[in-house]
Structure formats: structure tokens, C-alpha cells
DNA sequence: AACTCGGGGCA
DNA sequence: TGCCCAGAGTT
């Protein structure tokens, strides 16, 4: 396990690799963010933005999403994977918002996770980005990168990764850290073919050194 | 813990 | 072409 200082410095270095890391979801209010994050499961932000560009003009509030047949909403987001389930979830979610929250996005984790298609990661994104409530969203990239670098343990659950990052990083940097970990994981420390040879963190990455050794000997 | 959903991206 | 994936729900 790395110290706070080591963890913070490692994540700082990631920022030097992708200084223009600005690929975020497009949204104008908490409701649009919620929809965008639900749509983003298992696909890229760029793909989601391509769809929401038109989607958010046609559907401006929860009432709009449930005013059309399910098939129409499915058709409107069909270029995204899992679109059948996601369309169902969005209509169900909008019903819940109207019935239990006056058409607004709730601001507690319990209420958010009770919505269809909203899990812990999505809830954390909405809490932190839309409402400024401290939370760290751990996706597969964040989990993989922090474990490879030894910031977290291999056997840690998503929940434990969350707790570790909240303890080791200053609250004001959580947002930036999240983006840096995402980009570092997506484009550099990739799941199958991580670019270890020219990685600025190689000297302090046990996993990277292990992989290089295996590559040269095998 | 393991499976399913699924079109896009990428080798 | 075939594999993998910026999750969540179900069993």
C-alpha cells in the first residue's frame, strides 16, 4: 500500500500525460447529467455525447421521456449498446422522479441508487458533479489503475477502493483525480495492452515491471 | 461470484 | 471478423 504522498504524486504525473483531457459528458442540469451517466454504462463519453446532442433537444424533462412509446425512445438511442434496457430504465426512472421527487433529481445516495439503471458509480457521479457532494466514482479504469500501482490492494472491493482514495487524496482534488485516472486507464494503462515501456510511472509500478520482465523473457 | 445485455471501437 | 468494453440487475 502506498502512502498518501506517493498516491497523490502518481496521480499528479498522470495529468502530465493528458493535459487536454476534456472529454466529458454534455449536460446542462442535474437531470441531463443523470440521463447521460445512465446511458454511458459500457460505452464511451464521445458516443453518449453524439446521442444526447439530439436527445436533449427532444426530451427536456421526465414527462417528455414517458410521453413516447418505449420503442420510440429505444430507436432514439439505438446507436448505444444495451439500448433496450437503458430505454426501459430511463422511462422507469422518470416515473419515479415524478412520483416521488416532484420531477427533480434526488440528492442522497439512497434515493439515487433506488432509481432504475442507477448503481453506485452513477450515484457518485451525480452527487459529486451535479450537487458538489464529496464522492469518488470508481469505474473499471479507476479500479484497475489504482490496483496496478499499488495504491489499492488487488483483493479490494469497489467500496474499499473508494474508501482508500477518499483517505489518500485531498477532497478538493477528487474531481481532477477521477478524470486523470480515467484517461490514464483508457489510453495508457489499458486493460489488455498497457503501454508500460514508456510509462512515466514505471519506476514505481510493480505490475508494470512484472509485465516487462515477462515480455522480455518470454 | 458469475452471468447477461449489445452496438461501437479497434486490432 | 472477432474480441473487448467509460455498469447494473438478476440468480
Layout of secondary structure:
Layout: H1 4-17, H2 30-39, H3 45-58, H4 62-66, H5 70-76, H6 83-100, H7 109-113, H8 120-131, H9 140-148, H10 158-168, H11 174-188, H12 206-217
Helix pairs in contact: 1-11, 2-8, 5-6, 9-11
The chain binds a DNA duplex (11 and 11 nucleotides) through helix 3, helix 6, helix 8 and helix 11.
Number of strands: 0
- Rg: 19 Å
Helix/strand-derived category reads mainly alpha
How many structural domains? 2
Helix content percent band: 55-70%
* Fold-level CATH name of the largest domain: Endonuclease III, domain 1
Cofactor: [4Fe-4S] cluster
Binding site for [4Fe-4S] cluster: 189, 196, 199, 205
Protein name: Endonuclease III
Pfam families: HHH, HhH-GPD
Description:
61% of the residues lie in helices and 0% in strands. It has twelve helices and no strands. It folds into two domains: 4-19 and 139-217, Endonuclease Iii, domain 2 (Orthogonal Bundle); 30-131, Hypothetical protein, domain 2 (Endonuclease III, domain 1). The protein is mainly alpha-helical. The protein is elongated, with a radius of gyration of 19 Å. Helix 2 runs antiparallel to helix 8. The protein has helices at 4-17, 30-39, 45-58, 62-66, 70-76, 83-100, 109-113, 120-131, 140-148, 158-168, 174-188, 206-217. The structure holds a DNA duplex (11 and 11 nucleotides).
Amino acid at each position: 500500500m502506498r502512502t498518501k504522498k506517493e498516491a497523490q504524486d502518481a496521480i499528479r504525473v498522470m495529468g502530465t500525460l493528458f493535459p487536454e483531457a476534456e472529454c466529458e459528458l454534455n449536460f446542462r442540469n442535474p437531470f441531463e447529467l443523470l440521463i447521460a451517466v445512465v446511458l454511458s454504462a459500457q460505452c464511451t463519453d464521445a458516443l453518449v455525447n453524439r446521442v444526447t446532442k439530439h436527445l436533449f433537444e427532444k426530451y427536456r424533462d421526465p414527462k417528455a421521456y414517458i410521453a413516447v412509446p418505449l420503442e420510440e425512445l429505444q430507436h432514439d438511442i439505438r446507436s448505444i449498446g444495451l439500448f433496450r434496457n437503458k430505454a426501459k430504465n430511463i422511462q422507469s426512472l422518470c416515473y419515479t422522479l415524478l412520483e416521488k421527487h416532484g420531477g427533480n433529481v434526488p440528492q442522497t445516495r439512497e434515493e439515487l441508487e433506488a432509481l432504475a439503471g442507477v448503481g453506485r458509480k452513477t450515484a457518485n457521479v451525480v452527487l459529486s458533479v451535479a450537487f458538489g457532494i464529496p464522492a469518488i466514482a470508481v469505474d473499471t479504469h479507476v479500479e484497475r489503475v489504482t490496483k496496478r500501482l499499488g495504491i489499492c490492494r488487488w483483493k479490494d472491493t469497489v467500496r474499499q477502493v473508494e474508501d482508500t482514495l477518499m483517505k489518500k487524496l485531498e477532497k478538493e482534488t477528487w474531481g481532477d483525480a477521477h478524470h486523470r485516472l480515467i484517461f490514464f486507464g483508457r489510453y495508457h494503462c489499458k486493460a489488455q495492452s498497457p503501454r508500460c515501456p514508456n510509462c512515466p510511472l514505471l519506476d514505481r509500478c510493480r505490475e508494470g515491471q512484472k509485465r516487462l520482465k515477462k515480455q522480455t523473457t518470454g
